[in-house]
C-alpha cells in the first residue's frame, strides 16, 4: 500500500481527474510543455531525445525515440494536466485506435524538428490524426511580430 505522501499520491494533487486511455497529458517543464498520450495502467507513450543517436548535431533537428513509461516517472516533480484541447475543433480517433497506434510506435526512432515534428505534434497526431502544436504557433506569432 502506498503512503498518502508518495509520489503517485502527489500526482493527484496536480490533476484532480484520472486520465483515461487516449487522453493527452501536458507536462509543465521549466521552459516548455512536454506532451504524452495516456494508454492506461499508469503508462504514457511519448517522444523523447534519443541519446543513442549520433545525428543530434543541430539543436532544432535530431532523432527522438518513442517510449512507454510510467506517468509518474515522466512527470517527476512537475505539474501536469489532462489537456485534450482540440476536442472541440477535431474529432478524436477511437480510443482503441489511439492506444494501438501508440503501442505500435514504441521503440521507433523518429526525426525530430521543433517546428514540424515535436512531442506535441506526435501526441496530437495520435489523438486526432493530424500533427499540431500550439507552442510552435505561439513562437511563430511572437517571431513574426518581432520582425515587423
TrEMBL record:
InterPro entries: H-rev107_PLA/AT, LRAT_dom
GO molecular function, one term: phospholipase A1 activity
Keywords: Hydrolase, Lipid metabolism, Transferase
Pfam family, one: LRAT
Keyword Lipid metabolism: yes
Gene3D superfamilies from the UniProt entry: endopeptidase domain like (from Nostoc punctiforme)
Keyword Transferase among UniProt keywords: yes
Domain LRAT as annotated: residue spans: 24-135
Gene Ontology annotations for the cellular component aspect, listed alphabetically: cytoplasm
GO BP of this protein: N-acylphosphatidylethanolamine metabolic process
Family: Belongs to the H-rev107 family.
PANTHER family in the cross-refs: HRAS-LIKE SUPPRESSOR - RELATED, PHOSPHOLIPASE A AND ACYLTRANSFERASE 3
The name this protein goes by in its record: LRAT domain-containing protein
Species, as recorded: Fundulus heteroclitus
